Amino acid sequence: MAEILRTSLSGLMAAQQALQTASHNIANVNTEGYSRQVVELSSNTAQGVVATISRRYDQFITHQLTSSTSAFSEADTLSTLASQVDSMVSGESTSVSPALKAFFNAANELANDPSSLPVRQVMLSQAESLTQQFNTMSSQFEDLRDQTNNQMGATLNNINSYASSIADLNAQIVLDSSRTSDGQLPNDLLDQRDALVAKIAEKVSVSTLQQKDGSLSVFIGSGQSLVLGDSAATLTLAGSSADFTHKNILMDGQDITQQITGGELSGALKFRDEILDPAQQQMGLLAVGFAVQFNAVHAAGFDLNAEAGKAFFDAGKPAVISAPNNTGNVTASYDAQTIGQLAASDYQLSYDGSSFSLKRLSDNTISSFPGPPPTTIAGPGFTIETGATVAGGDSFLIRPAFKGAQNIAALITDPSEIAASGSADTVPGDNTTALALAGLENQAILLGGNATFNEVNGQLVSKVGTLTSGAKVSSVAQEALFNQAKQSRESLSGVNLDEEAANLIKFQQSYQAAAQAISVASSLFDTLIGAIR
């Protein structure tokens, strides 16, 4: 009788667990990251039936979903941010192209009527509008950089929070697993941990390694340890020594920016490095090249007062940033004779104690110049004056184009000071210099003498448009793969309410049958006791 009772009781308990599991599944049908749980029954001679609750989980499908999540988040972030730059540089109201065209139209009007003060005033007004457009464009670039930095900072805060929670869950899972003797795993905690890994995958590419004690090691990027056991690393955002607005990713103080791949974080970094910074460099190159070359031609003419032409625009100076341990200083200025050689790039000047090297950072092209300091270095579009105290090991970051659109300004406010004549003796009717100024519009001056001002701007619009289009195509493709992987995971781990409703009926009948068997065993036991009495 005891055997019948024990077997029936095990069946009753198994059916009860199955009913509880089905109810648990139904309650969590809309819980993100929840994996459907099932009761696995196994026959046991001593105990009747043994029930173990497991979750529907597949490591390959989970890995596929994690990878596609990171890839889609990266592509979507890049596409979203790139479209903002594309709108800026190509929009009719935001592009510098209309303002540049209007300014040269005014220069042509000056060539047609060099003595007219109203015509000269129009040219000054257009010059002011053009410089303001450059300034506005630069400001918008900086706003986008701030936006990107803020987004990266928020992303790192989220990753840190998720990592800390995973470390806590690791500790709880290891503890709960060690307390059970039947191999029952804390399925809900495992789901919570996987859901946090999925959230990290949205921010950065992630990989995991299951440990024997039940904990999960989490790695990001190209293998940097984010979570090991119950310990989590901390990610921070820090400005570079050369430019505080250029942020690097640090893990416990170590720079891992170059190792970051996938997710929103990689998308933001790619946007900054491949679209935003190059666009600002190109726009700065256009502003600097235009201002320096226009000034050079204007200086060769004479104004209505028969005086030599003044600087029409303020182009500023190339920014020079010294390395922290430098002993000397250098200064830089633009060179009108070689401005056409200037590239949309930063430059690194280094001194080894005997000679200087100037590296163009966009392609790592290096030019060498003899020492010792002080000396003058003729760079491509700018000259560098080295101080006498420059010593071996000193290095300097030269930024001739990056702030060009921000620095440009119109200097002349008096229309009579516009130099239109080619000689002081032919004022005011001579238009020789005015013709030369107007002719700059169609001269291939920049990029090694291969591009006009409009073509430099056109190249920027074309490049940004191509990258933006490519990012959109990639985003659409990665979204399709993500949805496919998500559907695969849902097919395996998702809760089907119809199936769970059927299970409720099935396990209810099993419960009732087991209860009936217990009742029969109890009746038999009572009969046996009665017969003995």
Written overview of the protein:
With 533 residues, this protein is α+β, with helices and mostly antiparallel strands. The protein is built from eleven helices and 19 strands. The strands form six sheets. Strands 11-18-13-14-15 form a five-stranded antiparallel sheet, with no helix packed on it. A hairpin with a 5-residue loop joins strand 3 and strand 4 (216-220).
- What's the β-strand tally? 19
Sketch the major β-sheet. Answer: 5 strands, antiparallel
Shape descriptor reads elongated
Q: How much helical structure, as a percent, in the residues?
A: 40-55%
What is the element string, with H for helices and E for strands?
HEEHHHHEEEEEEEHEEEEEEEEEHEHHHH
How many DSSP H or I helices? Answer: 11
Strand order of the largest sheet: 11-18-13-14-15
Proportion of residues in extended strands:
15-25%
Q: What structural class do you assign from the helix and strand content?
A: alpha+beta
Radius of gyration: 36 Å
Unreliable stretches = none
Distance from N terminus to C terminus (CA atoms, Å) equals 17 Å
Oligomer class: single chain
Q: Could you tell me the mean pLDDT? A: 92
Secondary structure layout plus pairing:
Blueprint: H1 2-27, E1 37-44, E2 48-55, H2 59-90, H3 97-112, H4 117-179, H5 187-203, E3 206-210, E4 216-220, E5 224-228, E6 231-232, E7 235-239, E8 247-251, E9 254-255, H6 263-299, E10 313-314, E11 319-322, E12 330-334, E13 347-351, E14 355-360, E15 365-370, E16 376-378, E17 382-386, E18 395-399, H7 404-407, E19 409-410, H8 432-439, H9 446-449, H10 453-493, H11 497-532
Antiparallel strand pairs: 1-2, 3-4, 4-5, 5-6, 7-8, 8-9, 10-19, 11-18, 12-17, 13-14, 13-18, 14-15, 16-17
Helix pairs in contact: 1-11, 2-4, 2-5, 2-6, 2-10, 3-4, 3-8, 4-5, 4-6, 5-6, 6-10
